[in-house]
Structures are given as structure tokens and as C-alpha cells.
Amino acid sequence: MNLSSKTRKEVGALGEKVAAEYLRRRGFSIRDRNVARKTGELDLIVEKGDVLHLVEVKTVLADEFPREQDVQDEYDPSLNLHEAKVRKVARTGEWYVLEKRWEGDWQVDGCLVWLRRRDGMARVSYLPQIV
Predict the structure, then answer these.
(1) Measured on CA atoms in the order 11, 124, 66, 1, is the torsion positive or negative?
(2) pTM score of the predicted model
(3) Cα 55 to Cα 16: distance, rounded to the nearest angstrom
(4) Does domain 8-127 fall into CATH 3.40.50.2000?
């Protein structure tokens, strides 16, 4: 599936779907997706063990996947996972935790998704506890 004609919003939604499946296959339970509050939006809310994980997903289209040794790459979605964004996710997470009366531990995680433009193949990097 060629992704060249996809909009930014469609690419983001596909990246979130890929990230959710990635986490599910690694033992996380999906509790919620795209929860919006006045402080911001939570892309994925997942649970593993007794910990709630609020996951910010960043997705980019790439012609090729970056090599592991490339420190600074033009396809680096982590550049969009900056301090202000992480703080916003944490504030929104506080609302969510209070609203759902969650009494266990919780944390903010990141998930970076590269989607290869020509065929839709994905590479995922999970970043636990980014706050």
C-alpha cells in the first residue's frame, strides 16, 4: 500500500494503529484511544500489570527506514516529542487519572513510528517513561 497520497491526519491515525498493535503484541491492554480534554489529547492509554501508560505517538513517512547508527536523521519523529508536548500530555494524563479514579501507578511514554512511503511497512520504537 503506497502512502504517498495520504494526508498528515491519515498518516497519524495509521501510526497510532500501528503503535497500538505493537504494544498489544508486547502484553499491553488497550484501554482508550484519542482521549481529548481541554489540556490536550492522549493518543493511547494502555495498561500492563498494575501500571497505566499514557502513550504519545509520533509518526513520520519515510522513503527508507533510518539506520540505527544515524543519530540525526531527517526522518526522526522524536523531534516532535519535545518538552512542551510531553508536559501537555502529562497534564492531560492527570485529568484522565482523576476522572477514571485510577489508583495505581501511571507514566507517560512515547512511541515513534516510521512508515515507509512506498509500501506502508512500519518501524516502531517504544520509549518508556519519557517524563
Answers:
(1) negative
(2) 0.88
(3) 10
(4) no
